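Much of what follows relies on a compact textual record of a protein's fold. The record below shows the convention in full:
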Amino acid sequence: MSETSVDLGVLTAPSGVLVLGMAGSIDQWPGMGDQLSVRALAAAGLGGGHIHEPADSEEWWCKAVAVSAAADRPLKVRAEPWVFYDGPVISVLEVDLGLPWPSDRSGEPIRLGDLPIDRCGMVLGDARALDSFVGLDGESVDGLADVTYWGKYADDAHARFGGERTPQYGGQGPYGRFDLPLREAHEFADRIRSWGPAPA
């Protein structure tokens, strides 16, 4: 990568398969047949590939790419930013897969398939872990929830309710409290919704 690349941190893939997919549809895979991890494991076993649903149509609602990765160590993730209109975007995403390159390959990039620019963003993670993503309206699988808030009065709300900024490349994300027990998360969200700043 170039000198402008940014270290994004590390992730793990205990299933041995890493997935990059559309965040807006990551919870819809089970409704279209096999779980995302089942399809990703099959694609990764073939050397990596593009998976999509519906499989027999050119109009795909769910899209992802999957590739084998080391299951026993953290995988470094770096990005190369590029300015698009008035803000930075990721133009290249590099993940150290922790595996030796196959000996029959020359080290050249392998095209796995196309992914659209998803307005909801993209998600990169372990294939089996992504099966647990239930979307914003889904039931919590671990009994915990995150509550975030933003907008014109976010600083006033933060002064009253606390919380921390969510990490976001190129700046600060919304305020929030994370991994709260469900009851506490609902109560916190209700307090924010019922609060209003004093009129100016």
